[in-house]
Amino acid sequence: MSEADELPGIAEVSARIGLVPDTLRYFERQGIVPSPRRDSAGRRRYTPADVELIRMLVHLRETGMPLAGIALFTGADDKVTDPATLRLELLTAHRRRVQARREELDRALEVISRKIADYSGRLTGSPELLVRPDCEIACGVQGEGPLLFPVGAPVGRAGFAAPARELAGRFSVVTHDPRGIGASQARPGAAEPTPEVLAEDLAALVDRFTGGPAPFVGTRGGAVTLLELAGRHPHMVGRAVLHEPPLVSLLDDPDLAGRAAAAFAVAEADPQRAVQEFFDLSGAAHHTGPDETPPAHMALPELPAEELDKNRYFLGRMAGPTVFHVPDIEATRQAPVALCAGSLSHHQMARRATRALAGLLGVPLHDMPGNHRGASAEPAEFARALLPLLEPGAPPEPSCR
């Protein structure tokens, strides 16, 4: 028996990889994979390197690389003089395309999640309303167990719908729309949505449901609201988990601060431009590991009128006071606070700010699944990672340093 006779044949390789034999033969005929060795009877036999190459072909095809590009990568074209360099270039370019597509899907997923929450709310009835002197705050409760308050800005009930469902088996989850967001209505002359005002709205919401301390999780601008609540009303905070408060005020970065201020300044007149500029400077929609940085610019599609109106309010009135807020560090120390950031948010504005805050408070920074949008994009994984941080007492050892 020859060495080739001992190698797996086409049926075995097809079963391992999940491609039918005819597909493998087709790829071979089209010059997409090199022809394998043959045994003494003329049957195809595949080396481990052949199998690994075919596995890679499957991944490339599933992620949208054209067959011509796959043929170049697999080396079926024997005219290539430097296959290693060519493969590196092909993979680098394809990774950029895949990342861009993933970010497009994340944005679409967020919109879909909000719509699911909107329709779920209609099916389950109208939200409760908390009456404030100058507005009405829409809120709702789901689940059983101790109370838990997720806090967002501009994220409201719709943005927390998926993680709330994941947490409802352990908690009675109280979600709300910040003033001016979703179903919350502001009256003429209502106070601006600064962290101070939003924190007092949150305090009134806590009083509505319980007078005692409760656990909270704050994401995005809601983490800044929660910081302000912890400083003003530490007796209300049994535990506060803050995910990526985007505090530009904590970064010694005048260029970033100037770009943010410029984006907010044009939000009323040109919300599309404001969204694009804030998207580029924050990097928050991208997935970046420790050795990656978000791209400087990625053109966004034209936003629908509804999204433009929302961003006139968010970027024009809420985001500026939030990102330029200066927290009272000493007052915040009175409350038990845990800080976390996305494991795929490296070198992004909000993670940088969260690391700076962790240094000021002298607390560890914990990695969470996903990026800045992890709570809505990966709700099940985010909820599982959140549970240990909500436990009373000292937080677990950080997963990043």
Task: Give a structural overview.
This protein has helices spanning 10-17, 21-29, 48-62, 67-74, 83-124, 161-167, 195-209, 221-232, 254-265, 271-282, 305-323, 329-332, 349-361, 374-377, 379-390; strands at residues 37-38, 44-45, 128-131, 135-143, 147-151, 172-176, 185-186, 214-219, 237-243, 337-342, 365-368. Residues 394-401 have low confidence and may be disordered. α3 (48-62) packs antiparallel against α4, α4 (67-74) crosses α5 (83-124) and α9 (254-265) packs across α11. Strands 3, 4, 5, 6, 7, 8, 9, 10 and 11 form a 9-stranded mixed β-sheet that branches. Strands 1-2 form a two-stranded antiparallel sheet. The chain is elongated, with a radius of gyration of 26 Å. It is an alpha/beta fold and 401 residues long.
Q: What would you report as the Rg, rounded to the nearest angstrom? A: 26 Å
- Uncertain runs with pLDDT below 50, 5 residues or more? 394-401
Estimate the global geometry from the Cα principal axes.
Answer: elongated
SS-based structural class?
alpha/beta
Can you count the beta strands? 11
**Beta-strand proportion:** 5-15%
- Order of helices and strands, N to C? HHEEHHHEEEHEEHEHEHHHHEHEHH
Most strands sheet: 9 strands, mixed
* Spatial gap, N to C terminus: 56 Å
Helix content: 40-55%
Helical run tally: 15
Q: What is the typical, i.e. mean, pLDDT?
A: 89
Secondary structure blueprint with pairings:
Elements (H helix, E strand, L loop, with lengths): L9 H8 L3 H9 L7 E2 L5 E2 L2 H15 L4 H8 L8 H42 L3 E4 L3 E9 L3 E5 L9 H7 L4 E5 L8 E2 L8 H15 L4 E6 L1 H12 L4 E7 L10 H12 L5 H12 L22 H19 L5 H4 L4 E6 L6 H13 L3 E4 L5 H4 L1 H12 L11
Parallel strand pairs: 5-6, 5-8, 8-9, 9-10, 10-11
Antiparallel strand pairs: 1-2, 3-4, 4-6, 4-7
